[in-house]
Amino acid sequence: MSHTYVLVGQPNSGKTTLYNWLTGSNYKTVNYPGSTIEYSMGSIDLKHGTNKSFVDTPGTYSLIPKSPDEIVTGKVLYDNEQTNKAHCILVIDGVHLERQMTLVFQMKQASIDFSIVVTMADLLKEQNTQIDFAALSKNIGVAVYVFNGQTSEGIDKLIAGLPLTVSEKPRKKISWTYLDFQRARIDAMEEVEKVTRKGNTNDIYGFTKKLDSWLLSKLGFVFFFGIMTLLFASLFWFSAPFSDLIEAGFSYVSTQIETAFPDSFLATFLSQGIVASFAAVLVFVPQILFLFLGLGFLESSGYLPRAAALIDHPLQKMGLGGRSFVPILSGFACAVPALMATRNISSKRDRFITSFIIPMMSCSARLPVYGLLLLFLFPDNAFLIGLVFAGLYFLSLFFGAVASLILSKFVKPSKDQFFMMELPLYRRPRIRIIIKQALSKTRSYITRAGPIIIFFAVLLWLGAQFPRVNSQAPELAESYIGQLGQVMEPVFKPMGVDWRVGVGLISAFAAREVFVSTMAVTFKVTADEEHQEKDLLQIMNQAKFADGTPIFTVGSVLGLIFFFMIALQCMTTVATQIRESGSAKFAWTQLIVLNLVAYVGAVVINQAYRLFFL
Q1: Do 170 and 74 share a domain, yes or no?
Q2: Nearest-5° angle of CA 491, CA 496, CA 502?
């Protein structure tokens, strides 16, 4: 018979570290039924036996939930048939014992059967603080265990002491006022003081205080922008070789298929449709992985909560709060994990505004598009392109801030809104756990976003292959996708582009980076891959409308840059938004609004250029 136990605790309490020691690799991450919030379920590590299972709930500051994560934790404790009577393991950071003891009083008042695990015990020894946990256990009437997350010391005693029976006493939902929290904190201080004895105190906060005196000082923003710049630069430095390797591997597979079956439609479909679509999904996976690794390192080291606290005031000027920082930061790599990160924002208003502006952040899929268009504007001037490229990132932040300010005027903040975040001690990150969690999140991205990207990429490819004449693919202009582009040309013409560019814009709804390869096809670029970019630029310079006027001008290209900066073209993002917000109406409204603003802006830029410079 398997016994289930539920782990509960505040963020940064060491709960997930304990969970990883308990389960080893015997766990899986799933969505809570009826929710997009992830939580983990696993069985005990084999060396300890196999009759115990654990649920790692999202971090919660209170049993009175305010954020989606806290709501899911509450549902696990109260509503889930498998866990609403299970014994709970409340994980508390020993260094912040007094502050985190409020959860003890809440769980007792709620009649929840639980044990306490105190983490960070090694730090208590370092500061020569002795806590009589046996006396604490007797005073509060709850079993207390001590656990060292660095060495796993204490885990055997915890496993042996877990009860094998469940409480039949019904759990009560509680409702606390601010005054209740204050009383609980006072009671917690008294309980801890009774059992605490301090010797010649070693200041374990010394290193943290010294580092914070720099990182949270007036120079804090300098360090902040330096760290963030290093994070984003490293995404591309580290991921580029892996992305190139993935692209080369899929290109080789495609070539082999077409070489083996030169005149087969099925082979062409496999190579250019299926294989190329998989490549479109996987080529950016290294960037996603390194983003999760970087964020995991910053979080486990203790810096990420400080960055959120540091940026809280500037974000308030935009109508947001500190918790919006991490999702916005993630949006520069990919909107999909960024939208998932909004789950930790407790304010519905802030979560709404943040998720609305995230698609405006310059994600990695825009890079090939910006590269092509900037090469057209500034040929053979790599230094200037680099400066403008960096400027596009800050410009996307500026547009996001403007959108946030506008939305904040219509969506009023809740009266009880406040920003609270525990600032943990700086610790040495546990690389093994960071890698495991990053791989798990990356795998989740592939399984969720991948099928949608592949579907649309294959659909667009098929649209360019039909209707077939005598078993031959039609000219692009005669294909379904070409016909659609020509029908829509009157829409694209005010932007200063023709139907061929329009086809590229349509294809970008599958994946933005597809725009460059679609442009190469629509403008009949047939040179080898090494010189394809140069040939495409040459053809762009020579491309004309039927009346002989050039298609690509400074105005039309600037308009395209603006369009790609603002437009929401990624259907994966739309699908993720529907899941995360729980509202298809919100997601489709966002899609229409951002694309309409992008289109109008591109038209204004192009028409203004034609009016004043041509």
Answers
A1: yes
A2: 50
Which 3 state secondary structure label does DSSP give 121? helix
Instruction: Give the count of domains, the chain.
Output: 3
d(CA 90, CA 13): 10
**Helix H or strand E encompassing 573:** helix 571-581
90 assigned to some structural domain: yes
pLDDT computed for residue 322 by the predictor: 67
Residues 128 and 54 in one domain: yes
Query: Count of CB atoms within 10 A of residue 23's CB?
Result: 21
User: What pLDDT, in 10s, does the model give residues 498-528?
Assistant: 888 888 888 787 667 778 767 776 775 333 4
The two counts, helices (H) then strands (E), for the chain are 28, 9
Question: Is 5:55 a contact under the CB 8 Å cutoff?
Answer: yes
Q: For 8, left (φ over 0), alpha (ψ -120 to 50), or beta?
A: beta
Query: What does R_g of the chain's alpha carbons equal in angstroms?
Result: 28
Question: What is the side-by-side strand order in the sheet with 3-9?
Answer: 27-31, 38-43, 52-56, 3-9, 87-93, 114-119, 144-146
Q: C-alpha angle with apex 422: 25 to 34, nearest 5 degrees?
A: 55
Whether residues 535 and 501 fall in one domain:
yes
Mean pLDDT along residues 120-126: 72
Q: 416: pLDDT confidence band, cut at 50, 70 and 90?
A: very low
State how far the Cα of 66 lies from the Cα of 135, in Å rounded to an integer: 34
Q: pLDDT tens for residues 239-282?
A: 768 877 887 888 788 888 878 887 777 887 787 777 777 776 67
Report the C-alpha dihedral over residues 117, 119, 122, 127, rounded to 10 degrees: -100
388 falls within a domain: no
Whether 36 and 173 share a structural domain? yes
Q: What share of the chain is helix, strand, coil (3-state, %, to 5)?
A: 65, 10, 30
332 pLDDT higher than 90: no
Q: Are residues 609 and 531 in the same domain?
A: yes
Read off the tokens for 34.
């009826």
So what's the pLDDT on residue 27? 60
Whether residues 289 and 357 fall in one domain: yes
Is residue 131 within a helix (H) or strand (E), and if so which, with residue range? strand 129-131
- % of the chain exceeding 70 in pLDDT: 84
Taking the chain, what is the end-to-end CA distance rounded to the nearest angstrom? 80
Tell whether the model's pLDDT for residue 530 goes beyond 50. Answer: no
- Rounded Cα distance between 323 and 334, Å, is 18
Residue 126, domain CATH: 3.40.50.300
Q: What value, to the nearest 5°, has the Cα angle with vertex 17 and ends 12 and 21? A: 165
Six-digit token string for 408 = 């904040």
Judge contact between 133 and 139, C-beta under 8 A.
no
Can you tell me the distance from the alpha carbon of 22 to that of 159, in angstroms, rounded to the nearest whole number?
9
Q: Tell the residue number behind the tokens 């570290």, with chain if given.
A: 17
Report the alpha-carbon distance of residue 609 to residue 605 in Å, rounded. Answer: 6
pLDDT (0 to 100) of residue 592: 93
The answer to whether 609 and 558 have CB atoms below 8 angstroms apart is yes
Angle, alpha carbons 168-172-173 (nearest 5°): 145
- Helical H runs in 50-100? 68-78, 97-100
